[in-house]
Amino acid sequence: MPTDSDWTTLMNFAGKESVAGGKLKEAGESHWNSPNVGATNEYKFTALPGGFYNSNAYLSKGMSTFFWSANEAANPEFASYFFMFSAGAEMIHYPQGDKKFGYSVRCIKK
């Protein structure tokens, strides 16, 4: 699973936080809700809007995607994650996501 460093390297390569989400999201509105701001999938990453699972329901499907990082927070119940959403081109890093939420995972080959 990618670390914060891996995700940050990808984000910076794709133009930094303000535009990286758009360049990594699947283009169009087949899966993403309208408007899918900035979505070009320029680097063929094809991020899809899986939303997340929260104890008894899937939420935010079509609107956003959350990707876990391998980095844990100081509290072992939390870990870092990266977020993209349909209404913006940003890719945002959050250092503390509750591990009880079902976020997506991308694997990497090193």
Radius of gyration equals: 13 Å
The profile of the biggest β sheet is: 3 strands, antiparallel
Which structural category fits the helices and strands? alpha+beta
Distance between the termini: 10 Å
Portion in helices: 10-25%
Low-confidence stretches: none
Total helical segments: 2
Strand share of the residues?
25-35%
What shape does the CA trace take? globular
Helix/strand order, N-terminal first:
HHEEEEEE
Strand line-up across the major sheet: 2-1-6
Mean of residue pLDDT? Answer: 96
Provide the domain count. 1
Number of strands: 6
Describe this structure in words.
The chain is an alpha+beta fold. The chain has one domain (4-102). The protein has 2 helices and 6 strands, in the order ααββββββ. The strands form 2 sheets. The protein has a 3-stranded antiparallel sheet with strand order 2-1-6, with no helix packed on it. Strand 4 and strand 5 form a beta hairpin. The chain is globular.
